[in-house]
């Protein structure tokens, strides 16, 4: 009995001796788990930071690239806008020039209308084609006749077509025209310095009989267009002035 109690006591003491070791062992395991968890959390946070930094760098790069493309697009659009503005300015300037030209022509037209209507002058001027013609009611020498035309902003008539020749023939008058060889004998020129593209000389004309350096239209009974005849420039004749609207002087 006594031996048994002693054994039990020994065993109980051994158990008590062992218990602190077991408790210490448990504490060591918990501390290990805690440290492992901290390391894992730290590693996760580190990885997360790396990912965030990488993402931020990527966003900054993409933003920079996008800004560069946007600036390039903006510059191109600005350049195109400047070109369009320049084209618009050129068109506006052209329109202003056309408007000014139109106003000038309208002014010339009105001035000419006033002129041909003044004192019944509309009876003296006739329109044919793109020109106006003044048929004199008095006779003068060729040079004096031309001076009268120049006073009106016109000149002695220059014949450029068969239709114009027919128009003058139908006046049924002997009239001076703007053809002469006063500068050089036998070199016939219009008053603007050009030579006739087509001539309408009468038969055997020009004959220069007696220093005949100026030309008239001389109507005959024949139906031919050949009515030109040379005469001395001092001969007094009716005359025909020709003018375009832009050449007429304002009254």
From TrEMBL:
The keyword Transport does not apply. It comes from the Eukaryota. It comes from Seriola dumerili (Greater amberjack). Residues 128-242 form the C-type lectin domain. Keywords: Disulfide bond, Lectin, Membrane, Transmembrane, Transmembrane helix. This is CD209 antigen-like protein C. The chain crosses the membrane at residues 41-63. The lineage of its organism: Eukaryota, Metazoa, Chordata, Craniata, Vertebrata. The keyword Transmembrane helix applies. One of its GO terms (molecular function) is carbohydrate binding. InterPro entries: C-type_lectin-like, C-type_lectin-like/link_sf, C-type_lectin/snaclec_domain, C-type_lectin_CS, CD209-like_CTLD, CTDL_fold.
